[in-house]
Amino acid sequence: MLYALIGVGALGCAIAAVITKRLLLSAIWLAFTSALVALEMYLLGGPFIAVIELSVGAGLVTVLFVFAINLTGEENTYHSPSVLKGLALGCLLACLALTGYWVLPPTLVSPSNPDTQPLATILWEGRRLDIWLQAFLIFAGALTVLGLLRSAPQETSHKEENPDGLP
Amino acid sequence: MDYLDGVTILLVVLGLVGIGIYTLMISRSLIKIIIGMQLMVKGVLLAFVLAGRISGNMGLGQSLALTIIVVDTIVAVVALAMAVRVRRRFGTLDPRALTTLRR
User: Fold this and answer.
1) How large is the C-alpha radius of gyration of chain B?
2) Which of A29, A43, B13, B90 could make an S-S bridge to A17, C-beta 3.0–4.6 Å?
3) Taking the domains of chain A in order of start, what are their residue ranges?
4) CATH code for B3-92?
């Protein structure tokens, strides 16, 4: 029952994040969704990943969204035509129904002898290469963002000098 | 956790992924598109933790979910930086403004 309540709350926050017109409110609803998903993870028995999801998903990513919306400014979101929305919704519901029909019955059967290892062993011994790759990925992402945001004023001034882009 | 709780969480997973896909399909704002992508990833994360719980191998489920969180955060950061650049260059967040094809 508790899982269902938290799940309904997460879905409600997700729908609110999608239908809200203001981008800032969307980011805040996304943070609520993330917090509720983290709570569900905690109840499922994953306290480490719940804490990381809460701090990164609900904290860091929300701060980044607010920062980006502050830089870009609030903009009126343009809505797609109703026909397109209905078509997208129909396709989506059909896909989800098919996925649910396929996935639900067989996946919820527990194995007889599970291979249990602690998180630290799996993370630092079994997946050592993945950890290194993640560290490099974080470094590459930080450099990419620095490059993307730093070169903007030069291009703007260049465009003002030569708006047609002719040599 | 009994069978009904598992079904409930799996339905929440499908709902989050579905809402994310729907946002990707209909949204006309780059930041809304990134929000939709984030919603999809939340569903996938929950699915990994649920799979770890059901299979009895919670450590593996959590470690895979950790990898997804790292990758998703980097993707979101780079995508937001690109949205800022697009806004500065084109004056809008509408992805249709980026195309050079004749409509």
Assistant:
1) 17
2) A29
3) 1-76, 119-160
4) 1.10.287.3510
